[in-house]
Amino acid sequence: MADEDGSSLRDRLSRQSEEALGKLASELLENPLVNSAITKAFSAREKAASAQEAAMGALNLPSAADIDRLTRRLRTVGTRLEGIEEALDDALANASISPRDVDRVFLTGGSSFVPAVRRIFERRFGADRVDAGNEFVSIANGLATIGLREDVDTWIVQESDKQ
I need a surface site. Which of 15, 81, 98, 151 has the fewest CB within 10 A? Predict the structure, then answer.
């Protein structure tokens, strides 16, 4: 049911209620006793938060922000490890071989120092077939060997290939 101005009783009551609540809030905030209590409550909250952070720091406990950063970092690492597993699956599929067909896996480069990366290969091929050594020298040797090949151009990524 609409009034003369087109608003319903519910709309009018809602507006009046909002206005009354706004007026009450203003009056409460203007009251020195209420204002003082609110100010003290906010001050106490700030001091408590500061004390909690100091206590967590003294106990060497991570803050919520630290945990959030760690969670994001773990998701990123997890995504990268999944990418390594997918690349390994693709390499085996493209070579039409199974993990049983591989005699030896030689890990090289900085990632070979990461335990989670090593475990991927150990789970797939068995720890007895996974080895590493001269992790950075082997990369340099491999690049030098590629540089001596007649088909070196097939190994070079051109800027136009990246797009």
Answer: 151
